[in-house]
Design brief:
Length: about 110
């Protein structure tokens, strides 16, 4: 059974950092791209970042470029999203996506 489980969300002050994790199981995750999306209240889900197999190629939405870093472990089973210089507008539920499957999401709230 293909499964993605996110973790690492929470409440952080503006300018702070969080690292999200996405643990994949049930498929050979290392050969697939893994993506992060987010959905803020009242807004559509938006793409945040992608890391391709091998981890050499990474793409970012303009809104997070220079602040967020996507990575994956050597086995390719876990993807990470390091989020620095967080802003209130980064508040959202963050979702991991791979092979057409979505995780359950993890809430990130940036507030003073």
């Amino acid at each position: 059974q293909v499964q993605l489980v996110e973790s690492g969300g929470g409440l952080v002050q503006p300018g702070g950092s969080l690292r999200l994790s996405c643990a994949a199981s049930g498929f050979i995750s290392s050969i697939y791209a893994m993506k992060w999306y987010r959905q803020a209240p009242g807004k559509e889900r938006e793409w945040v970042a992608t890391i391709y197999s091998g981890g050499g190629t990474r793409n970012y939405a303009d809104s997070v470029k220079g602040r967020f870093t996507i990575s994956r472990d050597n086995a390719g089973n876990t993807a990470y999203l390091q989020m620095n210089s967080l802003r209130p507008e980064d508040t959202a539920v963050y979702y991991c996506n791979a092979v057409g499957v979505w995780g359950q999401g993890t809430q990130v709230t940036v507030s003073s």
